[in-house]
Amino acid sequence: MKIINVGNYQELSERAAKIVIETVQNKPNAVLGLATGSTPIGLYNELIDDHAKNGTSYRKICTFNLDEYVGLEGSHPQSYLYFMRQHLFNHIDISPENTFIPNGKAEDMMKECERYEELIKEKGGIDLQILGIGQNGHIGFNEPGTSFSSRTHIIQLTESTRKANSRFFSSMDEVPTHAVTVGIQTIMESRKILLLVSGQAKMEAFKRLLSDEIDESFPASVLKLHNDVTVITDIAFDN
Ligand code: PGA
User: Fold this and answer.
1) Which residue of 59, 128, 139, 144 sits 20 to 30 Å from the alpha carbon of 208, by its own alpha carbon?
2) Atom of ligand 1 at shortest range from CA of 40
3) Taking the mean position of all CA atoms in its chain, how far away is CA 203?
């Protein structure tokens, strides 16, 4: 893993945007794996600014989001489809038909998982996967204990994840209990991975990531087995 330490969140967002923009410029039909959550919002803002100022085009870009809550319509303000439209898709020239997010309201969720895996393959696989990290080390919604060989699947959210995400809902009861997420194996098949780690709340997770541990009890530790991972962090930490 290549670790890039930056001074603050703005710098983290700019460094990350530079990597995404380079990918898009070098391969105008690249397949990007996208993440939701607070961490990538600054990156998306940078991409929007760059698109407006420099005209970087996403016309032929295809995107796959990591995950979606089970049971929420895409029109629900807390759905990840809504998030992506609001924070990125509505502000760049990407074609909506090239943006893929698992359907959390599919009638047959198992079939939906298979369909999503197939789609990723059909589009040639992920060139650049953006990741955040949960305080418990989850990547996507792959909670601790998820098999490293998992593919897109349904997962029961841990109480700590539901609690962390309850800040976006009016009450804890409204936070979905399940999500659909691409699997760890799916993530590991991405050609390049960009992990963003921001804020003191992630300090423990970051320390654990830097340790020698590679174990399913800490999902992000699998990234040490990938040959092209860049971590950008604004956490000051001496090894
Ligand atoms: P956050 O979420 O960016 O909102 O901290 C990251 C995650 O849970 O994967």
Assistant:
1) 128
2) 3
3) 19
Which tokens belong to 215?
């174990």
DSSP 140: T
Residue of minimum CA distance from atom 2 in ligand 1: 37
The single residue listed with the structure tokens 């990547």 is: 139
133 lines ligand 1 (CB under 6 A): yes
Rounded to a whole number of angstroms, the distance between the first and last alpha carbons of the chain is: 14
Crossing angle of helices 80-87 and 41-54, in 10° steps, is 40
Phi/psi for 237 (5° steps) reads -155, 125
Q: Is 38 in the pocket of ligand 1 (CB under 6 A)?
A: yes
How far is ligand 1, taken at its centre, from the CA of residue 38, in Å?
6
Tell me which residue has tokens 């799916």.
Answer: 186
Pick left, alpha or beta for residue 115 (phi over 0 → left; psi -120 to 50 → alpha; otherwise beta): alpha
Q: Is the CB of 165 under 6 A from ligand 1?
A: no
pLDDT tens digits, one per residue of 80-115: 999 999 999 999 999 999 999 999 999 999 999 999
Q: Which atom of ligand 1 is nearest to the CA of 199?
A: 5
Helix (H) or strand (E) holding 45: helix 41-54
Q: Quote the CA–CA distance of 175 and 180 in Å, as a whole number.
A: 14
Domains of the chain (ranges, CATH numbers):
2-233 (3.40.50.1360)
Q: Are 202 and 12 in contact (CB under 8 A)?
A: no
69: which 2 tokens? 């809550």
How does pLDDT run across 141-176, given as a tens digit for each residue? 999 999 999 999 999 999 989 998 999 999 999 999
Rounded to the nearest 10°, the torsion over CA 37, 126, 88, 40 is 30
